[in-house]
Amino acid sequence: MQEGIIQGLKSDRLDLTDLLEVSDLLLHGQTFRFRVASWSMYPTLCKGDRLTVEPVSAPQLQVGELVLFHHRFPQGLRLLCHRLVAVDDAGPVPRLITKGDAATGCGEVIQPDQVLGRVVAVTRGWPWWRSGRWVGALARRVDQATERLTLLLAQWLQSTQKLHGYRWLMRNLLSRCVVVYLGVSEGTRWISYQPISRGGGDPFGFTGRRDFHLLAKLGGTSVGSLQGKAVAEGYRIEHLHVRIRYRGMGVGSQLLDLATTVAAVSGVPVLLASVEPANTAALHLFTKMGFRKTGGLRGNQISLRRDL
After folding, report:
1. Whether the Cβ atoms of residue 251 and residue 241 lie closer than 8 Å to each other
2. What is the total count of domains within the chain?
3. Among residues 30, 199, 248, 249, which is most buried (max CB within 10 A)?
4. Per-residue pLDDT tens for 247-273?
5. 227: which strand partners?
6. Is 165 inside any structural domain?
7. CATH number at residue 224
8. What is the domain extent for residue 58?
């Protein structure tokens, strides 16, 4: 993962589809931050607190530390931040036992390879949560009731995905809410991230043939990204990625459309890309956006071209 993508993810709220992004950050040996999204660690952690997590291996952990890990439940894979309460060395592979401070039952038994990192710093969120008076208790109860209502709404929305026109409706709604930011390269860093609108031309003086990075956000959360690399013929599209839950909602089309705008403003004649033959969804997306096969291969990938 490139540094621009990493910078874009550092301050976002992590989600169930973010394990690949988290793993990329850990492979770079960097700390990252995320917001607490539940009450499982109350009163140690409150919803909205921001945690700084550093990469760690299981043998380095100490009982009592807060650990970020992934765990599979009947409903699917989830990211959890709970306290390490014990280490079971009885078997051939040590097992870690974790538990939320607010939990009354048994905790989770996890394997060392489920560990993503440990918490090294906490930035407190909204102070009302921590109030010992009736204000804090009322605020927590209202939030918990809202969570239950949101869950019911999400379940209803999930059931509507089978209805005809669902994706068409969501695509039209999201296309008006997604904000795309354009960053340019300076050495090995991505800088000058500013919003760019569809069909808006060049809003802040993008000139020259410089590598660029597009980062799509929805409500402050990164939902997709695209990197354009300057090559001899023009620009090559690299690292086009849309998060799983937002695929088919028009995010990829919007990124490619804006990449074409940026390339045209810089004065290059052609936009290039390459797709693995098995990735039929990506191939359909590029074809829909005006790319055509050139007949050649780039390694084991299909070469695509769009003349500007």
Report:
1. no
2. 3
3. 249
4. 777 888 889 998 888 888 888 889 999
5. 213, 238
6. no
7. 3.40.630.30
8. 3-125
